[in-house]
From TrEMBL:
Cellular component terms per the entry's GO annotation: membrane
Pfam families, per the entry: CCB3_YggT
Keyword Transmembrane: yes
Keyword Transmembrane: yes
InterPro entries: CCB3/YggT
Residue ranges crossing the lipid bilayer per the database entry: 7-27, 65-86, 93-126, 162-185
This protein's name: YggT family protein
Keywords tagged on the record: Membrane, Transmembrane, Transmembrane helix
Amino acid sequence: MFGDIARFLLNTVFTLFGAALVLRAWMQVVRLPPYNPVSNAIFQATNWLVLPLRRALPSARRVDVASLVAALLAAIVYVVAMVAIAGVDPLAVAPIIAVVSLLTLVKWALNLVIWLTILMALLSWLNPHSPAMPILYQLTAPFLNPLRRVIPNLGGIDLSPILLFVIVQVLLMVVTRMAVSLTLFGI
């Protein structure tokens, strides 16, 4: 029982933190204005790790390398902790930990896409004039706009978030299956 609780807590904390780091990098790619409540919250939660890394890893064009490296480091710490909880020596499975850490980072990014899409869809139905809508639109537009060109608008109903949700869910299943097949400790 303790192992299950520890895995749940680690998964929750690291998924939220990893998603915040990925979101920080994504905000720079889509050029989200830095002076809004979402950006400020993400910066406050991640500055302690990203700012020291930024001294050694400057941004490359629009890619926040420090945030991505921080997310990868968080994924490595998460996977090592999960391995340790499973009672496996992390040094014995170091190559597997590296691959599973990359897959975990991809999983966090895919989960972030799902969360942002669901939040945007809900807000568009419940409160389309919410101050968060422009931020969510800017964050999800690179994923939804190509789908909008493929799927026709059905009487004012935008089905692209549903298609994006299905695509990302399938990708999550593939990534999760790959990670689980590499491990015995199930991430």
